[in-house]
Design brief:
Layout (H helix, E strand, L loop, with lengths): L4 H8 L15 E5 L2 E6 L2 E4 L6 E6 L5 E12 L6 E11 L7 E3 L6 E5 L2 E5 L6 E2 L4 E2 L7 E4 L6 E4 L5 E7 L2 E13 L5 E5 L10 E5 L5 E4 L4 E7 L5 E14 L2 E4 L8 E9 L6 E5 L2 E5 L2 H12 L1 H6 L3
Antiparallel strand pairs: 1-2, 1-24, 2-3, 4-5, 5-6, 6-7, 8-9, 9-10, 10-11, 12-13, 13-14, 14-15, 15-16, 16-17, 17-18, 19-20, 20-21, 20-22, 22-23
């Protein structure tokens, strides 16, 4: 039976009690130790088995999985940095076709946005990697948008300055925004460092379809975030304990030692509540539409489809 997004949210999130949200299992995908996983209603599916993925995106239609891989090809002249080469591989989740590798892609981030899959690196126009065409929205160097492109959130400058949100009922500007997400229906989420006062740094904000904004101050949100049509936000945050990072893996330090890095995990924020950790030692979350989850489950049930994801 095809599940609607509202049903998934109700099934995954219990009612608020004493100001706290009891998160059972939101429907989302994430990166764990170099592989892509998907989880919905308590069921967890491992999509890749190569342990070398550094980013991914799953089409909201459930048709395609894009996986980015990186490799070090040299060092900078001063010897203090490395030169990284990237490629993006596209896997069809709806047909038993061989994956396509695009070796000429830059090392930008991958997003399910604007009704397609985007490569976004803020150095050139966003690229629709399904059609190999660039998408241009006048006045913005980089952007994300709703499935019908009527709501757009993007940057006028390279990096993180001059962030704008535009849409039929939305008009918002922030001086500095580090990351953003736009749901298929046009709900916008972003991490801002430009709100007034030092206590407002790193605020996670959501703008709904009516143009109303709500923010969580001191969210400790960074990296890729993802907002649902209902306004819940999944994002990477720091968690307790010390961890060690090896290639694409996050390993908890046991016992912890001086110099260990802080651990990461994926948290959820529902406007009006406090954030809550969903899963530890994972990162780069993406909300899954019911169509995306159906595509994933159909692929997993097909021997040919599931086998090609391991290559």
């Amino acid at each position: 039976m095809k599940l609607t997004r509202n049903f998934l949210v109700i099934a995954c999130l219990q009612t608020m009690l004493l100001g706290q949200v009891n998160v059972q299992s939101p429907c989302f995908a994430y990166l764990e130790n170099g592989d892509v996983y998907a989880s919905c209603s308590g069921e967890v599916v491992r999509l890749t088995r190569t342990r070398d993925a550094s980013d991914f995106a799953i089409a909201d239609t459930g048709s395609t999985l894009a996986v980015k891989r990186e490799r070090v090809v040299g060092r900078t002249k001063d010897g203090n940095g490395v030169i990284v080469d990237c490629n993006v591989r596209l896997y069809s989740l709806s047909a038993d076709t061989l994956p396509r590798t695009m070796v000429d892609h830059g090392c930008g981030e991958l997003f399910s946005s604007c009704g397609t899959l985007l490569r976004q690196d803020r150095t050139e126009e966003p690229e629709d990697i399904l059609t190999r065409t660039q998408i241009d929205i006048e006045g913005l160097k980089s952007f994300l948008c709703s499935a019908n492109k009527t709501v757009v959130a993007g940057w006028r400058e390279r990096c993180c300055h001059d962030f704008l949100v535009r849409g039929p009922s939305v008009s918002q500007a922030e001086p500095i925004v580090d990351g953003a997400s736009v749901s298929p229906a046009g709900v916008v989420a972003y991490v801002s460092s430009g709100l007034s006062g030092p206590s407002s740094e790193n605020s996670l904000c959501v703008i709904n379809n009516a143009g109303n904004r709500r923010c969580l101050k001191d969210a400790d949100a960074f990296g890729k975030l993802s907002v649902s049509d209902s306004g819940e936000v999944l994002f990477t945050t720091h968690t307790e304990g010390g961890c060690r990072y090896r290639k694409n893996s996050i390993i908890r330090a046991i016992p912890p030692e001086f110099g260990d890095d802080q651990c990461l995990g994926v948290a959820i924020w529902i406007p009006g509540s406090a954030k809550q950790l969903v899963k530890d030692l994972v990162q780069r979350p993406q909300w899954l539409t019911s169509e995306a989850w159906f595509g994933i489950r159909s692929c997993v049930k097909s021997k040919n489809c599931s086998a090609k994801l391991g290559h």
